[in-house]
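#lab-general

N.A. 3:47 PM
ok so I finally got the sequence cleaned up, no stray characters, all 122 residues accounted for. can someone with queue access submit it? mine expired

B.Y. 3:52 PM
send it over

N.A. 3:53 PM
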Amino acid sequence: MRRTARWVLPAFAIALIAEVAGCHSRFVEATLDNRSSHPLHNVEIDYPSAGFGTSTVAANSSYHYRFKILGSGSVKLSFEDVSGKTHSFSGPELDEGQEGSLHITVDDAGHVDWAPDLKTPQ
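B.Y. 4:20 PM
back already:
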């Protein structure tokens, strides 16, 4: 037990110093809001160097994901509607090191609104 306690203080001190020094991972909190009256199927969001998705986002619900940008390029959204038709949209440009949030909204007419709130910390 003593051996464990001896390492707690140094580990805590290192974490505190890293936080004070401004060292932290830069992530983007993404939210896809399906504001339509139908589910979205086979949803995929691609961003520079990777992507994520889900099989279904129910009508009037949200899907959340957290990711790190490696590289630069635009974000893309694709999904299938209730009839099985695939829809694809290009969004804003993302740059490596940015952090913040990306809010994507799909409405009943199939329009997509991109609301990025991203910054590159100094």
